[in-house]
Design goal:
With about 375 residues, the protein is of the alpha/beta class. About 30% of the residues lie in helices and about 20% in strands. It folds into two domains: about 180 residues, FAD/NAD(P)-binding domain; about 110 residues, 3-Layer(bba) Sandwich (FAD/NAD(P)-binding domain), CATH 3.50.50. Helix 1 runs parallel beside helix 2 and helix 1 runs parallel beside helix 8. It is elongated. The protein starts with 5 loop residues before the first strand and ends with a helix. About 30% of the residues are buried.
Amino acid sequence: MTSENTSARFDVVVVGGGPAGLSAALYCTRLGNKTALVDRGGGRAAMMQDVHNVVGIPEETSGAELLSIGKEQLEAYGCTVFRDTISSCSRAEQSTRDSSEEEQEQEQEQEQEQEQKQNHDEPATTDNVPEITLCGTDTDYVAEYVVLATGFTDERPDPPLPRTGRGLHYCLHCDAYMFVDEPVYIMGTSESAAYVAAIMLNFTSDVDLLTRGTEPTWSDETESMLSNHPIEIVHEEITSVQNGDDGWLESLTFEDGTVREYTGGFALYGSSYNNGLATELGCALNGDGTVIVDDHGRTSVENVYAVGDLTPGHNQVPIALGEGARAGISIHWDRRKFPRDPSLIDELGPVRNDDVPGIPDELLEQAVEHHTYD
């Protein structure tokens, strides 16, 4: 924590305001956790010209509009939304404290336990769990749980290029449907580029693979695959891009003077995963840079979750929404007060009317205000 920054404490802090982060924050808030969403802005979803494959969302909805509405929903439920960039993070290490500090903490815990018995309160869920501090520009966010939804960044090829979302695309599963029976390019020199070119033959008969003057890195086996499919490999570099009045790509001009018409295409140059915070916290990573998680989004570090494009799997908005929801439900399962554990009933006694509901007062008031069935 920096000395100049103010400190804000939450049960859960979600880092990243894409679909996965919004969903995680929504579930955490509605399930009774004091939650903050910290979003630096931008990201893959924000660049979407149109939202595809999300049931109930019209395709004329832009990614920016989807995210903006999501943040408004979060604030209506009581989540605190910050526009900030997290530059570093840390996890309190109990093992580094000296014996006098440990003795003082033990005395404080004994006093708290005695007070809890008198008031029939639940013991704090943060016992023996180091708090996590996330350092922003002017604020340090301290939380018991952290959800990382920082995604990845597509590696862009060198210009000249079509406009992103108007002829330059990155997600086959999102946008292949847009190019059924249309002329399409695939840009890249990797195994992935070659196979995406072949996959696009399921949607159109007119597919070019553009290497842009760079030697391909695909294998001999993949070269054989390409030679046995109606895919034209164009090695010349692109020299200019022609767009229509609506901004959509119309054609590309190449070094040899040829002009090729395309409705759009896909760039396959890999991704850079935004895993810096996960690395600082000690989360285990896969070889490709994704964060290793279980079925609920739990990382290898206690109380740290990762969801969305930062984790392995298909990079789709509906999948990201589902992963955020699962993480939020898992955190609720860990943090909820009731039903009281049998061992705590022996210690604290039965749950009384004054003990419930378990939702924090500020969220309780927000929920009552939000009710629409009167």
